[in-house]
Design goal:
mainly beta; four-stranded antiparallel sheet; 3 helices; 11% helix; WD40_rpt; WD40/YVTN_repeat-like_dom_sf; Telomerase Cajal body protein 1
């Protein structure tokens, strides 16, 4: 009994030490966020385009109609990833990220006659890319974590090295006749241990440490409550641990538990196939958008019955995925549209705040930097012309088929508090 008691005490002490280490690591991460997120973005002042990219998309492609249709920041904010219609993924570094703090406004104006700089990595896929995402714990200081995943037509899921461009491993799903079937959307779970992938009427869950064909298959059309159609988007709640949302081209959004994939409820209301889902920072609200649907819908997942509000964007005539994003404070949402405008909405009231012209083309993606007062946008669309049309049709301007990085004016926490006390409502509230 004495030895058993000693072992039990030792285990309890070991568990306590592990808990202390976890708490310390959590506090350290929270402190990093506080250190980096002190600027409060001002949306009443138009942003300045600091970096611009268009010509390398065209000059490196035999297809003059090539355009970027996605831009995603790395979790550590050191670089961003773009995807283009020529089946390529590009990694761009963010030079002098700390310089945006030196002044309240950036005086640099992009010269659209030339790209700001070239990508430091280009990965070529064999077929059109359906979706891509960063490993959630990616850090430039740790090369092991510098990876991103992509899924392409008729191919397995690829895990790429973001520094060398080498293929780390693949995750393969097979259909009923033992042929490889491609995922339409992918996403890492918050723990970074699994890849969730959406297929036609099903989801597959891969363990990232076990590449190959092993996966857990989950049908989305079993039982009474069903989510038919292609699963086109996946998002995980940042606060409600173990909860995820999946959007379907069948115009529905489903909420699941991660541990046992129990279906909690299904949301109806999108006019078109759901192409993007995203949780609010506190995890209490879910935002969904669809193709050929002019509204982003806000849902309160604690009720999941009524629509809280709708946010308009110009997207009635395109099948493109138009990806929106929420700022690091969780106070505002930015979205592009067919008119080339980016609209900013206040998520506390659902009211329009401001807008700016980001391109002369469809802005198919808008993404906030994880902690700097910056954002990225990509724009373009596929143009169809007859053989008799002149090649000059493809003589596009620098504001078409392009990607841009924007710098916003900002105020410090102290300035924001003073402004709020004086009644200035133009500044974002400190959450």
């Amino acid at each position: 009994m004495g030895e058993e008691e000693a072992e039990q005490k030792q285990k309890q002490q070991s568990n306590s030490e592990m808990e202390v280490e976890e708490i310390t690591a959590k506090e350290s991460r929270e402190q990093v966020v506080k250190d980096y997120s002190w600027p409060v973005i001002r949306f009443d002042v138009p942003p300045v385009r600091t970096y611009h990219f268009c010509y390398q998309f065209r000059n490196t492609s035999s297809n003059p109609n090539n355009f970027p249709y996605g831009i995603k920041w790395s979790p550590d904010g050191s670089c961003f990833l773009t995807c283009t219609d020529e089946k390529s993924l590009r990694v761009f570094p963010l030079p002098d990220a700390g310089s945006v703090y030196h002044e309240n406004s950036c005086s640099f104006a992009a010269d659209v006659a030339a790209d700001s700089y070239t990508a430091n990595l280009v990965v070529n896929e064999g077929e059109p890319v359906y979706d891509f995402c960063w490993y959630p714990y990616m850090s430039a200081s740790d090369p092991v974590t510098c990876v991103f995943a992509s899924t392409t037509r008729d191919h397995p899921i690829h895990l790429w090295d973001a520094t060398s461009g080498e293929l780390r491993c693949t995750y393969r799903a097979y259909n009923d006749v033992d042929e490889i079937t491609a995922a339409y959307c992918i996403g890492f779970n918050p723990a970074g241990t699994k890849i969730f992938a959406g297929y036609n009427k099903s989801l597959r869950i891969f363990d990232i440490h076990r590449p190959g064909r092993d996966s857990v298959h989950h049908s989305t059309v079993k039982g009474n409550n069903q989510q038919p159609g292609i699963i086109s988007s996946i998002a995980f709640s940042p606060s409600h641990t173990g909860m995820l949302a999946t959007g379907s081209y069948g115009q529905t959004t489903a909420i699941y538990r991660e541990d046992n994939m129990e279906l909690l409820y299904i949301l109806h209301g999108q006019q078109g196939g759901v192409t993007h889902v995203q949780f609010s920072k506190d995890g209490n609200y879910l935002y969904t958008g669809g193709r050929k649907d002019p509204y982003i819908i806000c849902w309160d997942i604690r009720k999941a019955v009524d629509i809280v509000f709708k946010l308009y964007r110009s997207s009635e005539n395109t099948n493109q995925r138009i990806l929106f994003d929420i700022d690091p404070f969780g106070q505002h949402l930015g979205t592009g549209g067919e008119d080339g405008l980016v609209h900013i909405y206040n998520l506390q009231t659902g009211q329009w705040v401001s807008s700016f012209q980001a391109a002369l083309d469809t802005v198919n993606c808008f993404s906030f930097h994880p902690f700097l007062p910056m954002a990225g946008s990509s724009s373009g669309h596929r143009r169809f012309v007859s053989l008799d049309d002149s090649p000059e049709v493809f003589s596009l301007s620098g504001d078409e088929n392009c990607a841009s990085i924007w710098s916003f004016a900002y105020a410090s926490m102290a300035d924001n508090a003073t402004s709020m006390d004086s009644g200035d409502s133009n500044l974002c509230q400190d959450p």
